[in-house]
Amino acid sequence: xxxxELIDTIKQQTYRQTSLIKGVxxxxxxxRSDGYDVVTAVDTFVENVHFSKKTMDEVDTGYRVLxxxxxxxxxxxxxxxFYLVSIVIPPQLSDKQVQDIFKGMKxxxxxxxxxxxxxxxVSGDSLMISVTVIGYVHRDKVRYRHDAMENDLVFVxxxxxxxxxxxxxxxxxLDVDNSDYFIARHRRPRPRVAFAxxxxxxxxxxxxxxxxxxxxxxHEIAEASNVTIQIDDNLIPISxxxxxxxxxxxxxxxxxxxxxxxxxxxxxxxxWAQVVDVANKHGLQVTKIGxxxxxxxAPVLLQQNNKNIPLEKKGFIHKK
Amino acid sequence: xxxxELIDTIKQQTYRQTSLIKGVxxxxxxxRSDGYDVVTAVDTFVENVHFSKKTMDEVDTGYRVLxxxxxxxxxxxxxxxFYLVSIVIPPQLSDKQVQDIFKGMKxxxxxxxxxxxxxxxVSGDSLMISVTVIGYVHRDKVRYRHDAMENDLVFVxxxxxxxxxxxxxxxxxLDVDNSDYFIARHRRPRPRVAFAxxxxxxxxxxxxxxxxxxxxxxHEIAEASNVTIQIDDNLIPISxxxxxxxxxxxxxxxxxxxxxxxxxxxxxxxxWAQVVDVANKHGLQVTKIGxxxxxxxAPVLLQQNNKNIPLEKKGFIHKK
Lengths: 320, 320
Known about the structure:
Two copies of one chain form a homodimer. Chain A is an alpha+beta fold. Chain A is 31% helix and 27% strand. Chain A has helices at residues 3-10, 58-74, 95-111, 162-171, 179-187, 193-197, 214-225, 247-256, 272-281, and strands at residues 20-22, 29-32, 36-46, 79-89, 115-123, 128-138, 153-157, 206-209, 228-232, 263-267, 286-293, 300-304, 307-310. The first copy, chain A, has a seven-stranded mixed β-sheet. In chain A, strands 3-6-4-5 form a four-stranded mixed β-sheet. Chain A has a two-stranded antiparallel ribbon with strand order 1-2. In chain A, strand 1 and strand 2 (29-32) form a beta hairpin. The two termini of chain A are 40 Å apart. At the A-B interface, strand 2, strand 3, helix 2, strand 4 and strand 5 of A face strand 2, strand 3, helix 2, strand 4 and strand 5 of B. Strand 3 (36-46) of chain A pairs antiparallel with strand 2 of chain B.
């Protein structure tokens, strides 16, 4: 297949979004947006840096690349609508493999009725996929990380550390209980779009998705909001099945692992019940892990064994 | 410098666009758009495929990467407003070199008051830059390639083939008159934003930018509009200084060279004078090169030596 034939097999045949005026097929895509703010983010994945054939196939890779971007849009409280894909194709990658990457993206795009509206396919030495996602949000309901306030509760959805645990299992070919669960959490993260969207009744909410590790995201909210966040080590939700690993491994994954694409947020006490209701509606666990304090000695304090110790932004993850 | 420090030196310190609500510094950027259509395009450049150290430095590379994207927005009749950059940084690239790439982008961004609102910097084996550009256009003034109609004039701005000629000069280290001109046309293309924007009084216009060669762009308009375009070989505007090269080289560059980022358009006879006026206002040459005919034996016919021959979409460019 030449480049144009390949693109024909990749591009969407019909579009889902009514605000789309022109998708693929001109110099640029065109869409309309009245009464909404437009939200956009980009993420780039390089083979053997962000993913590898050893741990996932092409369909999973495509799925994950787009999921990660959708998670950024969810963390803004927005609904994902469109995406554009740039892909660098190395000579050894077959047309089928390229199509499988797009198959994975289309799979998760269809969940959110998203449209592929543009992109670029070029040749190069190594596989690289860059995705730009565009979403809409009611203009007074954008969820910034600078909106945390003193006395807010700090919460997290789902469990953290699973994706890192899954990658560890894959890289070391371990045979442990619930391997499939952890591996799926690594390969097929589910961005929390519906949950974030359904929090719209709440007027103020700080929100981040957990892409770079819980510790990093806590720092980002604390620094942007000019507060200190105090969390309790005993409250951090991890999967029960993770207990077969050492305490050091668990701590490492839950604080610094990231890539679970759960949401971390802060909300006033009085809105907490609403957050729980929305989570319940979506069958999603939501856990209070701490609270927001006046700015003190460190952006993030960890309560562990009755002591408050500063939690660093980045820990060290031993990849064996 | 670590990744975060590097990003701090790269990101814009102040923003220019009043419609921007949030730039870099959260999960995604946010902007507002009332009464306009939003136009978006992405282009990706890989070192040693789309550019090389042999022919341009980092500042030029950054400039050119963004210029090319702006050209797509211009070809839609839109004004470029925002851009997002993904960059894969190989180990041998210094912080200074990365900053120089962004310096080049900022240089052309400042011409159009564009804001850098997001991006991703990741490590990898080879340098890759992917840029997403977002622009606005009055909703009934989007310039599609499917809007050519029978009896339209076909026009082109500036001269074509210069950028390919410049690349040829660089790759072969030639010493010819006006080398600097041709080289600048390769390294520093000027997208025709002001010209395209000022054509807004004209109700209908088909427009493409010449990125892949005149022949290819003619095909795209003819096919999208379901017509045949007839052009006259004698009318194609090339730089006088190109006459030191062989006829074969000239033909090759003017029809298949591309990357001049001039605009190709079709417009009704009655609006032609307005197109000329706008071009004059911007000190830009505009040339009538042919006309739009009912669909016949080929999408594009070339009048050469009193014969009409089909012009292929892609020719062959010998890169010596």
